[in-house]
UniProtKB/TrEMBL annotation:
EC number of the protein: 2.4.1.-
Family per similarity comment: Belongs to the UDP-glycosyltransferase family.
This protein's name: Glycosyltransferase
Superkingdom to which the source organism belongs: Eukaryota
The keyword Transferase appears for this protein: yes
Regions that span the bilayer: none
A GO MF label: UDP-glucosyltransferase activity
UniProt keyword Mitochondrion, yes or no: no
Species this chain originates from: Acer negundo (Box elder)
Keywords: Glycosyltransferase, Transferase
Top EC category: transferase
Amino acid sequence: MQKAAELVFIPSPGVGHLASTVEIAKLLVDRDQRLSINVFIMNLPNSDNSKITPTYTRSLDRIKFINLPNQSSDPKTSLISLIESQKPHVKEVVTQSMSLPDSRKLAGFVLDMFCTTMIDVANDFGVPSYIYFTSGAAFLGLMFHAQFLNDEVKKPISDLKDSDTELVVPSLAKPIHAKFLPTPVISVDWAMYLHEQTRRYRTAKGILVNTFAELESYAVDAAASSETEIPSMYPVGPILNLDGDNNYDTSKKAEIMEWLDDQPESSVVFLCFGSMGSFGEDQVKEIACALEQSGQRFLWSLRYSPPKDKDKVVIPRDYDNLTDVLPEGFIDRTVGIGKVIGWAPQVAVLSHKAIGGFVSHCGWNSTLESLWFGVPIATWPMYAEQQFNAFQLVRELGLAVEIKMDYRKDFMTGNAIIVTADEIERGIRCLMERDTDIRKRVKEISEMSRKTLMDGGSSFSSLGRFITDVMDNINP
């Protein structure tokens, strides 16, 4: 009889990474009663992630959350140094866990895409490491290709910044123009950091990817046939936190849902730009003008970034008074067709029958949620790998329309170009057209995203292969 196995999960402290990690932990323990999981939770300075726990799982007793001590209150503390400082604490807790009389056999570490330094701790215990990659397979392929070009060909992708070059990437069927490459890949400092992470990926035993083969078939196939050394890939998505709205203000959520209940089916465009998405006053006025000119029903999540405090990253927040930033009379003129809100219960909104399109920053979690609910996207990327996701959705997969695929916002200064009202209006009108090939394709992918997680589906099978591999670690 096979022994029970324990996995150590170490996510990055970002909310999106934490929530996604919790969801895959739930999936694993519900799938196989032999597994238990310890999730180590790190906090960024002046933050508290201790409440990130599963809202429901049949096997909650086999998921344990361990809050690591806050190492610094200095907002300038880097993610690299934060994770590095937690290595002795992780090692101590795992050692204590293994010494308990009823302890399960340690089978491996599952590390967030930015936590590869913890491979050293797994090596100390003589167990393999796996990576949980919370972005898509095509972007993972770009990271491997960028690191290969830098290390082996001596042609770093960062040299392509501001060029007119088109880059052939093994995980994409079409070449990608340099202007659509995300900032972390073309910024020298960030690129060096990503290359180091990717070198460590190559030493892992496998990589779990939050995608599904039907969505990214070209990228998944490319990984399987790669000429360079890449660990086994397990497409196990879409991993979604569909209960993520439970902490949202109940009365505000009820007000939003009641408004949506009064709108015709597939008639509302939803504008929402993620936890870090905000715009300056000039851009807000262009969006407002576009919405008013379009005559389109809309639900707009509008937030602002407070003034910068030295090098501290500030989190956008809701306006106290929306009339301070919106054009004079805008709310009165659009009262019959639109609603402007602050932070949005995104899952509940996207799942509502009134929503017909999503103007999005193209974060991977938001992308998967939108596809899950069959809502087409208009791309407006900002940070991280979002420009790449936008290119993939529009040009590679035919699942989205463009507002501004090469839009990017400086994370520290907030500087960005202004997207005009005409550009925004054109994108919204295209997004909300009925009976388009994009809308049909999104509906097909939505159905596939659900089937892939069912018994016999590709992601279901892929997760099963991962579990078999984990159990082989303790039952060779």
